[in-house]
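Risk register update: the risk that structure generation would not scale has been downgraded. Supporting records follow, first protein first.
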Amino acid sequence: MKVPALVISLAVFGLSLTGTGCSVVRINGSYPTADDELCLVRPNPFNDEINRILEWQLERKDFHVRSYPHGTAPGVCRQTLVYTWAKEQYYLPAYVKQYAINLDLYIEGRKFANASFDPTRNLISPQVKYIPFSRYLARTLDRLFPGRNPIGR
């Protein structure tokens, strides 16, 4: 039995995507810190649900979170996390709501690391559709702040 060339091409293309870093979580740097204070600069537009989840996850990592409005300078604290988010995604049949989020970590006012989660980066991995945003965010924070209380298991 002959396999059509299109089927083979699609399979090879799919395999190449899985090996080219189409991960939904990206980390550029990490910061193993013992300092418990972390300032959080909220984005504009603001989403209360995302902010609540992010603050809760940071507190689970044993940070004392001080929240600041959009536009606050990253040097407001020794460790400052500035974040932005993108439009929510809904996945059925599990009805899981996902958000793309980008986290920039500043140490003493200078950008030190970046972490992000974007469910649209890897459309061929079905597990993205069934894992809640809070779980992916926890995994992202675990990789951004290694050595602190692990929360993304």
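Supporting record for the second protein:
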Amino acid sequence: MKIIFFFIITLSLLPSLSSAGKKTTASIVAKEPVTMMDLGLLKLNSMLANTKFRGLQGATIGAIYNARRGTIDLKVSIPVKKATRTQCKKAVNHTKKIFVQTLGDKKIANIHHYFKHEGTAYKNKINWDDLANHVVITAIVLTKNNYQHSIYCQGKLMQKEVTY
């Protein structure tokens, strides 16, 4: 009798055995993997939403992954009284300044820091410096009174050209 009682007490103290059949939403979500892209975009968007940037006052900035093009797309929208191409180009250039520093003739991007993690498994497999070549900035200067007069422009993070 003591052995059966001891056995029942032991089983009740082992949570994995007593709740083995329970699947909660939290346990299912906890087992889902998070990609480096998911985590990087989360960190990047958090920083963009919680920081004020010079030249981008009143702007809304966000980042998404464009799987069709294989690019990270930064979207910038700035409300203005009257939209011009110059304002749109300035929005793209000010966004570039968030991630690119110039050292002499060389431009160095830091956007890869949002996507790197502490592990070493990808250290030799990923060319982190190349990530900046796959970042596209799309800006829109929104005319407050009439959205039809808004102007869109686009440029790559590591290139000077801006297209309308």
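The chain has one domain: 35-163. On this basis the risk owner (M.S.) recommends closing the item.
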